[in-house]
Amino acid sequence: MKTIATFHVNGQEYDTVIEPHMVLADILRDNLNLTGTKRACSGGNCGACTVLVNGRPTCSCITLGMLARDKDIETVEGLASTKNGLSTLQTAFVQNNAAQCGFCTSGMLMTAEALLRENPQPTRQEVKIAISGNICRCTGYIKIVDAIMEAVSTLQTINNHNEKA
Amino acid sequence: MQILRQSEHTTKPQDDELLYVGKSLQKPDVAQKVTGQAIYTDDIRISGLIEGRLLHCPHPFAKVKAIDTSKAKSLPGVTAILTYQDAPQNKFSRSTMAEALPSFAYNGERQDQKILTDICRYRGDCVAAVAAENIYVAEQAIDLIDVEYDVLEPVFDPFQALEPNAPQIHSDAKNNIAFEMDHPFNVGDTKQAFADADVIVDFSGVNSRQKHLHMETDSAIAQFDENGRVTIISPSQGPHLGKKHLSERVFSDLEDGDIRWLSPTIGGGFGARLALGLEPIAVLLARKTGKPVRVTSTREEDFNGYASRTDQHQTIRLAALNDGTITGIEQYIISDAGAYLSHSATTSLVNMQKSLGLFRCDNVYGHVKVVYTNTPVTAGFRGYGNAEGAFVLQQAIDMLAEKLAIDPIEIRSRNIRKEGEQSFFLPCVLEHTRLQECMDEGSKAFGWNKKFKGWNRDKSQGRFQRGVGMSILNHASGAGGFLLEHSSAVMKIQADGSANLVISPCEMGQGILGAVTQIAAELSGIPYEKIRVVTGDTDITLFDIGSHASRSIFVVGNAVANCAKKINDIIRECAITHFEKRQVKVKKEDLIVQGGEVFPKTNPETTISVREIAHDEIYNFTEIGSQISASGAYLSTSHHPNHQAGFAEVEVDTETGHVTVLKYLAAHDIGRTINPLLVESQMQGGAVQGLGFALKEDYVLDQTTGEVLNDTLLTYTAPTVMDVPELKNLMIEDPYNHGPFGAKGVGEAGVVNPAAAIANAIYDAIGVRIHSLPASPEKVLAMLQSGGREMPNGASHVSGQRL
Ligand code: FES
Ligand code: FES
After folding, report:
1. In chain A, how many domains are there?
2. What domains, with CATH codes, occur in chain B?
């Protein structure tokens, strides 16, 4: 049974035809052509497909599209902007070489993004706990944690600066 | 150019004269990976693309009696259904190495499988394939195919498979022996050496079938054009060899040039992508339908099918004199290939080559037997046999040290090969080694002398026990003298002074694109950020056997170096007339190209830009009259070993058997670090994979059904961030004159030592030896409770099979 559904992704509105069995990851990738979101297990076990739904990190591979209609969805494509370039978190990933093959990276970034919004000054241990559901086979995780910690301190400096200003 | 960070980890000061080499620069492809713009095979959108899926046999051993596709055919949206009757009858191996091996090793590459088969030799063997308008229809159609099987009696255990009455899995492999061979470098007389020895040790062990677990599951696209030429798109580590193999073995009506192979961004490889994946079936479906077809696989299919490390059951015996000198080594390997051979024979051979070649010894004997079982197919995995061997050998050498009351580092120091001696690849001399320095510097940084309390230290009672252990390795920087170890690179200069660099190895995340670009920038004089590096299209790149064997920085790096030097030469040549026009008289050999500018050594203020020169060459009818371009090649004729020492500290909970790694340090004999950040990334990633291999990753087969019991990322426990201990890396730098700027390989070594060092640390902590990987809590506990009783030879617990 096909339905037209509305999705709000990265601040844009999309109308697209979906079927009830379709999961959010497939809709983003196949219907909206937002292929930055990856699927590595399609079973909710690896975090590669993590997107933010109403600000919460969510496995898009096990989220039915029907349930994500009319909610605020954010994907990796929404992190950088034409105006400001890469986000602080993305820059930190680049600087620390936190992406090797890159297949886990979108999910890592989205998970970290959610953490930093909720807790702008996490400890290293809190960062580890936050990304403990995201599997990376390449990096050994250290550079990813380093990157997130670096983003934390950069954001902190920017904040302090803004406050003074 | 921004240097991302200064390296704190090298033992030598950085060379100030070099602009790019030795610096932590940003690799060219990282920005697109953090923005989601990198395109992987599954992200490619082609109009008219249809989706293919496979039907797998549900039995471990069965013959198809009848197959009925009529229901599936009538499903709307189905384009084609192929069964084993429609596929070529040619046999091939998923390993493409047959095209690159010398004749003596060639038998190790049995061409033993078909694209679709009626004799199914493991759960997961492919019987039929469907192409349909979308994945949902394709999957429904798969469910609608009715197959009637004659179920045969399977065998899952390699030792049982060798018994006389065991079911025969391949009609042409007697006793299920797929491959058997003496080590090609056997020398001396080990019997005599063992008879004359002061001490003998004997140790058996087996590794688990660690899964590669590249996060991108397998997928391939194929499309024929109007001339019958096919384009394949897939995450291949070696597309040139792939197309040769495909045309030679599978599709006899295609020629090498009839295939164009594109490798887009690759979501991890670790050796799995060295072999053919879904490409043959994609080609078959594309040919049948006349449409572009993409075949994909799920994580569960990946777990149940191709591939994993080969479980190698090994016994290693050492004979030595009282002073610790090793006088004899024997190694016996029985490897379980699974249902088809793929890389299992060559990984077993490489295990012998590395294990038997690490120490100087006059009496060496190795023997390998590779056996078929009705289990999923195993293959080459990062380290290629070396991690499997180190786990056994490095425990054996520690046992020897204990018997002789010699420190583990000391006994290794007394026996490792020195420069000028034979290398592990016997035809070649060991030209360069800093393994001793790896041990020395590593032990200092780790605090070995304080932490290792001697063999007889009092293992006091208490729930938590700590221990330390170490391990060393030698590994290849490309298999020169054995494989087709050559590579070629092309560089051309655009009218704006920027360059294109075309290289052949695939980028799987290891950072090779960045490292070779740094070499190109240093030697050509074109700035790093102005070089665009291209790979992944066999119509553009030159022949090369792909990314593996830690070869790329060495072999491809040298090819790039040769190419960049030629470019530098041409630029200087062309610059002369430009200087003359400005009334500056110069000689070519006095010119320097740097940062995109050319200037005389003696007069660096007078510069002419490469941009101006390159522009004129293209647009202003100069004498040379062509775009500045060059190609460079390199042929490697030796293995150019790199080395590493690894040190681990563990804590064992003697009540639960749980092992925690507290600290791990690796010191690598790298020659020269081209990019410290990238090297460190490789070493960390390798170490954590090694940690998973040591303690967590198991592949559990049900002994009665052959079913893989942990076929999801939830049940197969790969290391998460919570498993990562304090990790340290040292790069022991001392340039090696054959490497580009002195560099040697590094990609695989990191995964080799952890299991061996951790096993030795567990022994130091609780006095029991680990015979079977992973050293999971139940095994450690079982060994503790049996009082550390050593298991008899060859009777180690097989991972997931006997425990
Ligand atoms: S793809 Fe969604 S959790 Fe793995
Ligand atoms: S970078 Fe490859 S899986 Fe994380």
Report:
1. 2
2. 47-152+225-281 (3.90.1170.50), 307-480+638-785 (3.30.365.10), 486-635 (3.30.365.10)
Q: Which of A22, A57, A78 is the last residue of a domain?
A: A78
How far is Cα B643 from Cα B16, in angstroms, rounded to an integer? 26
Task: Identify whether A83 is part of a domain.
Answer: no
Q: Is residue A52 domain-shared with residue A95, that is, in the same domain?
A: no
Residue B251 · residue B264 · CB < 8 Å: no
Q: What is the number of the ligand 2 atom nearest to the C-alpha of B267?
A: 2
- Of ligand 1's listed atoms, the one at least distance from the Cα of A44 is 3
Decide if A44 is inside a domain. Answer: yes
**pLDDT for residue B419 is more than 70:** yes
- Is residue A52 located within the same domain as residue A23? yes
Task: Residue B686: name the closest of B745, B636, B772 by CA.
Answer: B745
Give the separation between CA B448 and CA B457, rounded to whole angstroms.
Answer: 15
Residues A38, B267: C-beta atoms closer than 8 Å: yes
Which protein residue has the closest C-alpha to ligand 2 atom 4?
Answer: A136
Cβ(A75)–Cβ(A35) below 8 Å: no
Binned at pLDDT 50, 70 and 90, residue B491 comes out as: very high
| A123 shares a domain with A100 | yes
Average confidence score pLDDT of chain B = 93
Q: Which of A78, A97, A121 is the last residue of a domain?
A: A78
Hey, are the CB atoms on A86 and B687 less than 8 Å from each other? no
* 8 A C-beta contact, residue B393 and residue B358: yes
**What is the biggest distance separating any 2 CA atoms in chain A, rounded to whole angstroms?**
57
Domain shared by A17 and A73, yes or no: yes
Polymer length of chain A:
165
Structural domain boundaries, residue A153: 88-164
Given CB atoms, is A48 within the 8 Å cutoff of chain B? yes
The answer to whether residues A70 and A24 belong to one domain is yes
Count how many pairs of residues, chain A against chain B, have C-beta atoms within 8 Å.
166
Closest residue on chain B to A34 (Cα)? B36
Give pLDDT tens digits for B695-736. Answer: 999 988 888 888 999 999 999 999 999 999 999 999 999 999
Minimal Cβ distance to A142: which of B215, B268, B684: B684
Q: How many whole angstroms separate alpha carbon B620 and alpha carbon A49? A: 53
Q: What is the pLDDT of residue B786?
A: 80
Q: Cα of B242 to ligand 1 centre, how many Å?
A: 30
Please, which pLDDT band fits residue A83 given cuts at 50, 70 and 90?
Answer: confident
- Token pair 């101006």 in the structure block, residue: B612
pTM given for the model:
0.96
Helix axes B344-357, B386-404, angle to 10 degrees: 30
Distance CA B265, CA A29 (A): 17
Q: Is B707 helix (H, G, I), strand (E, B) or coil?
A: coil
**What is the ipTM score, two decimals?**
0.98
Residue A36 lies in a domain: yes
Residue A143 CA: which ligand is closest? 2
CA angle, B474 then B477 then B478, to 5°: 125
Q: Are B696 and B774 in contact (CB under 8 A)?
A: yes
